[in-house]
Amino acid sequence: IQVLVADQHMPGMTGIELMEYVSEKYPDVIKIILSAYDDSQIVIDAINKGKIQSYLLKSYATEEINIAIKNALETRDLREENHKLIDNLSIANKELKRRTRLLEQDIKKRKKTEKELKISERKYQELVEETRTGIMSHDRDGNILFFNNRFLQLFGYRPEDMKRLSFDELIHPD
């Protein structure tokens, strides 16, 4: 049952009592009460106890009752769509949390690797600078890329000399 329409005055129980029972057992059912009486206390009880969507007087035209039922069905459809959206959002949030955890793990690994790389670079730099061997590197075009202080000492160059020289100029022509 998606929409329940009941009269307020029925044999054995009132419409409010029926709606109260239905609200407890089937909270998603949309409830409408029809009554021949315009009693504000009944309307208040119907809303508070029976959790109704509409309270209509029987004197309303059939068209107005049909509109109330149509609105109730639209409300039901919107609720269903809302539940689907909430479910989809929940799934998306779980996936986002999973991906966030993976990214956090990746960031930790990268930071650790970066730290290890810096330590390795520092050790390499110390090794290159402390060695008794002159070290110089160049690219395929002969541009000097790197040289250590020992290279400068052994061959009598200054750092500014190395910036303007090419590898070919450092080699003896013979």
Provide an overview of this structure:
- The chain is α/β, with parallel strands linked by helices.
- Helices cover 61% and strands 13% of the residues.
- It has six helices and five strands, in the order βαβαβαββααα.
- It has helices spanning 15-25, 40-48, 62-130, 149-155, 159-164, 167-170, and strands at residues 3-7, 30-35, 54-57, 136-138, 144-147.
- Strands 1-2-3 form a three-stranded parallel sheet. Strands 4-5 form a two-stranded antiparallel ribbon.
- α2 (40-48) links the parallel β2 (30-35) and β3.
- The longest helix is centred in the middle third of the chain and has 69 residues, at 62-130.
Sheet with most strands = 3 strands, parallel
Helix content: 55-70%
N-C termini distance: 102 Å
* Poorly predicted sequence stretches spanning 5 or more consecutive residues: none
Kindly provide the radius of gyration, computed on alpha-carbon positions and rounded to a whole number of angstroms. Answer: 42 Å
The ordered H/E elements are EHEHEHEEHHH
| Total number of helices | 6
What is the averaged pLDDT score? 87
For the largest sheet, list the strands in their spatial order.
Answer: 1-2-3
Question: How many E-type strands?
Answer: 5
Quote the beta fraction: 5-15%
Quick one: overall form? Answer: rod-shaped
Structural class by helix and strand composition: alpha/beta
